[in-house]
Design brief:
The protein has 413 residues and is an alpha+beta fold. 35% of the residues lie in helices and 23% in strands. The protein contains 13 helices and 13 strands. The chain has a five-stranded antiparallel sheet. A four-stranded antiparallel sheet has the order 11-12-10-13. The protein has a two-stranded antiparallel ribbon with strand order 1-2.
Length: 413
């Protein structure tokens, strides 16, 4: 098959872009267990969109292809380009322009009138033009109506169709669209709007710019649709540890985004395990919408009740609660330490203990998730207590190893 820039299977592109961008150390032979031609086609396809960001490195194992870009230095996510290269048939593109042209005058037309116009005004100009059947036209009209491109109304026994009025002044929304495209969970919509402008605003820069989110847009949109309709979903999820996929039936309830890593998760009720569970969006390969769940509100209230016990994205099977207390030292001229405690704590409370001591207290499902944050107060921690002794042992054990590696004195902790 001849190489084409257009995509038929987006999940395959998402996998390759993720591999190139996140890892970037695999050689061609490590990708081509099934087909070397498939790898070459996908690599060239990605290179045609992101050529200025593609890099190559050679070592003893072979040639590595990878994506290299500083997300802080770009104003607009280049990965949105992948959504603008969807494949289409010749009939699809012809019918698109036929419809929009026939309905351009603002008149309402029935299906039969549109079919006659296609035959008499367009196909007659070609010798071997393929006729458009009524079933195909009706499907296309329904698709465009769902997209908001056209509208219909009942006129007697027939439906009549017309183009939707576009009264939006896009010029006044240029900056808003530019910001929306990079900050909204479904910013790809803003990227499509920006394509309508001759020049795009470059005023915005972002300290934390998680551009890989773009590849999850289809998955996220399907989850939002399920949440809006209170529907169950069938998720096909890749399991990196085992290198295979598993299918889970989940009722999506909330979307969480990590402010540290930028990873996004869906929290929902798992029907097989009968409990709340998190799944990473970048591991979800496919979302299939199922029937609505009449108990959606009950499960949603359950999430709200447990939200105060969530530090990260871990809910233990037993739903046991870890109680943690951390006492830190902050002198009178160090109010920023206390401010950090107040600002960065996700749950729990902070109270003064006298003599420049402050105690942070929290009850969470999994206190092990708190360790990275707790370590940032190393050197100020006076005491650390947790009902999950593994948390305390891990913290002091890591500190002991650090002392062995780098040395220190009795006042270092």
């Amino acid at each position: 098959m001849a190489y084409s820039e257009l995509i038929k299977n987006f999940s395959k592109i998402r996998e390759y872009v993720s591999q190139f961008y996140i890892y970037g150390f695999k050689t061609r032979s490590e990708y081509t267990a099934k087909s070397a031609r498939s790898y070459d086609n996908e690599r060239r396809r990605i290179e045609s969109w992101l050529g200025e960001y593609m890099r190559f490195r050679k070592d003893v194992n072979g040639k590595n292809s990878f994506l290299a870009l500083d997300s802080r230095a770009i104003s607009h996510n280049p990965l949105y380009t992948a959504f603008k290269a969807k494949s289409f048939t010749e009939n699809d593109i012809n019918l698109h322009f036929y419809l929009l042209d026939i309905l351009a005058g603002g008149e309402e037309k029935t299906v039969k009138e549109i079919l006659n116009a296609i035959t008499e005004d367009y196909l007659c100009a070609f010798e071997d033009a393929e006729e458009t059947d009524e079933s195909t036209l009706r499907k296309k009209l329904k698709e465009y109506e769902n997209l908001g491109l056209i509208k219909s109304r009942k006129n007697g026994r027939e439906l009549v169709y017309a183009r939707c009025d576009d009264a939006v002044n896009l010029d006044s929304w240029k900056e808003a669209a530019a910001y929306f495209s990079e900050e909204d969970p479904l910013g790809v919509v803003g990227s499509f709007l920006l394509d309508k402008y001759e020049s795009v605003p470059q005023e915005f820069t972002f300290k934390h710019h998680y551009i890989l989110h773009a590849l999850e847009s289809e998955v996220l949109e399907s989850l939002f649709e399920a949440m809006r309709g209170h529907q169950k979903t069938q998720l096909t999820i890749y399991v990196p540890r085992h290198g295979n996929t598993k299918v889970h039936t989940l009722l999506p309830l909330k979307i969480y985004c990590s402010t540290q890593s930028g990873r996004r998760y869906v929290l929902g009720y798992h029907y097989d395990f009968r409990r709340l569970m998190f799944f990473r969006l970048d591991n979800i390969k496919k979302v299939k919408l199922l029937e609505a769940d009449e108990n959606f509100e009950k499960h949603f209230r359950d999430v709200e009740a447990h939200k105060s016990k969530l530090w990260g994205v871990s809910i233990t099977k037993s739903r046991t609660i870890d109680h943690l207390e951390m006492t830190v030292y902050a002198s009178e001229n160090e109010p920023y330490i206390v401010n950090r405690l107040e600002r960065e704590k996700r749950v729990g409370s902070v109270e003064p203990m006298g003599e420049n001591l402050y105690r942070f207290t929290a009850d969470v499902f999994d206190a092990m998730e708190m360790l990275p944050w707790i370590r940032t107060f190393t050197g100020r921690i006076v005491s650390l207590i947790c009902t999950n002794q593994t948390v305390v042992n891990t913290f002091y054990g890591d500190f002991a190893k650090m002392l062995q590696m780098y040395g220190g004195d009795e006042h270092a902790f």
